[in-house]
Please model this.
Amino acid sequence: MADIPTDLAARVAAVLDEVRPTLRADGGDIELVSADAERGRVEVRLRGACSHCAASLFTMTYAVEARLKQAIPAIQEVVAI
Model:
């Protein structure tokens, strides 16, 4: 997680910790790759079963992205890489 602003990274990590139990229940996980506070962009990587699941788009949009944007309004974009 190099080059991630500590304050934003900590806030994002806390939100990811909230959704992580749901992902782990299905054999997956999520990793913070980068966060750009100036652009409001967060990049994450789905891991384990979530990385190749047919529902991963749904998971990203309705579980991860929606929760991050709700908790941190400055986030404009969440991208799965």
